[in-house]
Each structure stands twice: as C-alpha cells, then as structure tokens.
Amino acid sequence: MRRDALFKWTNILLIGTWLVLFSLIPHLFILVCSFLKLDASHTHFAGLTLTNYYATLLNPLYLKVFWRSFQLASFCTLLCLIVAYPFAYGLTRIKTDYKPLLLALVLIPFWTSSFIRTYAIIAILKTKGVLNTALLSMGIIKEPFQILYTNTAVMIGLVYDLLPFMILPLYTNFEKIDQQYINAARDLGAKKMTILTKVMIPLTLPGILSGSLLVFLPAMSLFYIPDILGGAKSFLLGNLIQKQFLTGSWGLGGALSILLLVLLMLLLLIGGWLKQQSKNYHNSFE
Fold this sequence. Notes:
Helices cover about 75% and strands about 0% of the residues. The chain contains 13 helices and two strands, in the order αββαααααααααααα. Strands 1-2 form a two-stranded antiparallel sheet. α3 (about 60-95) packs across α7, α10 runs antiparallel to α13 (about 250-285) and α12 runs antiparallel to α13 (about 250-285). It is globular. The two termini are about 40 Å apart.
C-alpha cells in the first residue's frame, strides 16, 4: 500500500511540476507581457496599461487577420471531418489482420516532426515538384500549376498535418457504437441518409467534437505552415503574434495571445457542453 501511495504521489508531483514549469509559468509571463507599456524609445518598460488590448480589439488590420484565421481554421476542420469520417468508419468495419497496419499508417506521421513534413510538401507542390511532374507526364495538364505560396498550399499543409487528430477520436467513437442500433434502424426501413443523420452522427458527436477541437485549435495558432507554404501571401494570426514578439512589441503580442487563449477556452467550454448533451442523447438509446 505504501509503495502504491508513493508511486501515486510521485507521479502527481512530476506531472504537477511539469505543468507549472512549462504551462502555467509561460502563460503567466504572456499575461504580464500583455499589460506592459513601453516608453517613447520602445526600449524600456514604463508600467502597466490596457492599451494593448484596446489596440488589438480596435485595429481593423488585426480583426481582419483574426477573421481570416478563423475562416481558414473552420474550413480546415470541415475538410478534415469530411475525409476522416468515412475513413474512420471504414477502419472500424475492417475485420482482417490489416487493421493494426492501417492504424499504424495513420500514426506514422507523428513519428516525424511536423516542421520537417511541412518542408517535404514543398517538394510535392512546387512548380517542378512531384505533383506537376506526374500530371505533365500523364498529359493531364500542359503547364504546371502554381500551388506553392498560395492559400491552397496552406490548406493542404494544415489538413495533412492535422488529419490524424480527427481520425483517431472518430475511430475510438465508432468502436464504441453498438452495431445493433444501425441494424435496428435498417429493420425499421430507414434509408442510408436517415441512418447517417439520425443515428450515426448523434452517436459519434463526441468524437466529432473532440476531433474538431483538436484540429481547430492548432489551425488557429500554427504559424510555420502559413509561413513555409503560403509565404508573404498568407499572413494569419499565428504569424501576427510571432511578428509582434520578434519585433519587440511584447505587449501587443501578449494581448493577442491572451485573446486567442480566451477564445479557445470558450470553444472548449462549448465543446464540453455539447459533448454532455450528446452523452445524454446516447443514454436515451439505452
């Protein structure tokens, strides 16, 4: 018993220390930075102020960047859901020994740095890259596409990088669904679309919400994918925050970071509420 208690409290201490050092303290540092005021020379801190928040909320340029980032993250989440939903369902329906292999193929991207994988996409999308070379050799196109350094390239990079975060929660949710619900709906004469909208989607709503949050949250804040694949044509919220800190505008960068954090926390709360409603709906089946 003493050994179990020692093991338990040791783990709690290690996890708590890790969270304090690498999560709480950095966030507190950003919070303090968001209230800092620079002097006229912009080289020394001159006190605390709320001006950074006013400048962030009232600046049309910042609002435009924020709205573009929100739209892109929403579209990325939708694309990931459209691709991942049938894939995850098909993966659960496979009854052969190949299922572990397919799951491993989904997880393999996590074994390589996403930064490196983003650079690898350049070799595929550039003018003389793999994609254009293949299409030209097959005679499908006569001139190479200009995909790299566009919003399309950014979207491809985000979907490629974040798709596993949508597949895994959906796969876990599909595994828990009792097939008898679907069979009962078929026996009652329900069509495929009715089964999808009235049975499968409500039962898999927790997986949909979890996957959507796991995709949407990083899509709003990632800065290296738009920077590498979009170039100067794609300037999103993550890039804006990065630029503020690199140019010494720590106050504005901190204010933008805190506002983004508040938004993401609100989304988490809404997602938790929707998951609870979905759980209540699921219990009504039983």
